[in-house]
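ugh ok fine here u go
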Amino acid sequence: MQTTDQFSLFARSLHWIMALLVLCMIPAGFLMIQEGIPRGLQNALFLFHKNIGVLLLILVVIRALYRRFRPPAPLPADIPMIQQRMAALSHLALYGLLFLLPVAGYIRVKAGGFPIESLDALGVPALVPRAEWLATAAKTIHFLAGYAIAGVIAVHIAAAAYHGLVRRDGVFSRMWPPFRSPRSGPPAA
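structure:
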């Protein structure tokens, strides 16, 4: 367990970097598949989406391992048990979707015979065969998981706002501000 209620600087930094990347990936993912957008923009969005997806997969694995070996402090005792369980379920859903989305995206791209430029540049061979049925199945999973993560993120943001603005119970300040050391004290007013 951590010695303070606030997450470590590493955990908070990783959370906010991933949050920023995911919040860019969602609209890019939905925009890049729209018909009628200029081909140059569509290509740039696909390039961004595929390669940031690789980065997010690496970061979610690091984050899950870090959380496994450095679990967060428990929530305050006055948080109702149902809210504690919902928080645990939403975090599990976020981690699951943050893993599922890039894996399904990878399978969709590679099974469809398309490049993932960052992996290709590193000489990483395709880990799945080229197969249209597999690409189609992965594309469907990736698409539906995109909607699911958007919903879970909306609930996560609403819960954070509730704790930060309504309850003011310290739960939000465990993760905010992103880049201040836990030992440096509260931010200047």
